[in-house]
Design goal:
single chain, about 260 residues, alpha/beta, UDP N-Acetylglucosamine Acyltransferase, domain 1, 2 domains, nine-stranded parallel β-sheet, 5 helices, elongated
């Protein structure tokens, strides 16, 4: 370990092999920091925070702050962070509002400067959260989703796998997996082809998703009928989209006026 003389590390903190703690950083008691993590200058790791291996926490980030929840009654509640995440300057991640409801950040995520991850949120693996994004409490972001700069996500919303939310969008419903959702109010504007290609999704599967998108958002069919038509495509990614829709409690963002052109 390498702990700078000006850093404050509580004796009750558990630090792994190769951990680096920079100048004026604070690590409170009842924390775990895995092997080869780096906690840079002025970062704060508060109690009940667990970090896996090889995370880099940049200057001024605060991990494990108390939830901004009027119902929070105090006590020990957890924040669990996986491996190999990059957490940039000024990021705030709040711990859960109850002992059995942790805030969770997966592995290989990139959280850019000054974004906020609220209490009880759950981020999957490979998620990118750009600068100044605001995630309210109880938000779920699935694997490899991308939230562009300035996006604000309402509490209890979900963002599906390999979805993208465009810059400064206001998300107050669920964002469909594999779909580009953008604007104020937010609207679905086509399949997220770039992310699908990067993820190795082949042309046939991308084509099935485009057909599903048209059935769901451009055909004018009632939702139940559209889901039945989508199921007939017999594609695993389309089935994943159907499952996501059936699990939605807030509804999902539909297509806007420009969606027809952008979906082509």
């Amino acid at each position: 370990m390498s702990i700078h003389p000006t850093a404050l590390v509580d004796p009750g903190a558990r630090l792994g092999i190769g951990v680096v703690v920079g100048p004026y950083a604070v690590v409170e008691s009842d924390t775990e920091i895995g092997d080869d993590c780096e906690i840079r200058s002025h970062a704060v790791v508060k109690r009940s925070t667990r970090l896996g291996r090889e995370n880099v926490v940049h200057e001024g980030a605060v991990l494990g702050g108390e939830p901004q929840d009027l119902t929070f009654g105090g006590g020990v509640t957890p924040l669990v962070i996986g491996d190999r995440n990059v957490i940039r300057e000024g990021v705030t991640i709040h711990r859960g509002s109850a002992h059995d409801s942790p805030t969770v950040v997966g592995s290989d995520c990139f959280l850019m400067a000054y974004c906020h991850v609220g209490h009880d949120d759950r981020l999957g693996d490979g998620v990118v959260v750009a600068n100044n994004v605001l995630l309210a409490g109880h938000v779920e972001v699935a694997d490899r989703a991308f939230l562009s700069g300035g996006v604000a996500v309402h509490q209890f919303c979900r963002v599906g796998r390999l979805a993208i939310a465009g810059g400064n969008s206001r998300i107050n419903m669920d964002c469909l997996p594999f779909v580009n959702t953008t604007g104020i109010p937010a609207r679905a504007v086509g399949i997220n082809v770039v992310a699908l290609r990067r993820a190795g999704v082949d042309a046939d599967a991308r084509g099935a998703l485009k057909r599903a998108y048209r059935i769901l958002l451009r055909s004018g069919l009632p939702l139940a009928t559209a889901l039945e038509e989508m199921a007939r495509l017999s594609d695993p990614l389309v089935d994943e989209m159907i499952t996501f829709i059936r699990g939605s409690k807030r509804g999902f963002h539909r297509a806007g006026r420009r969606a027809k052109d952008e979906a082509e």
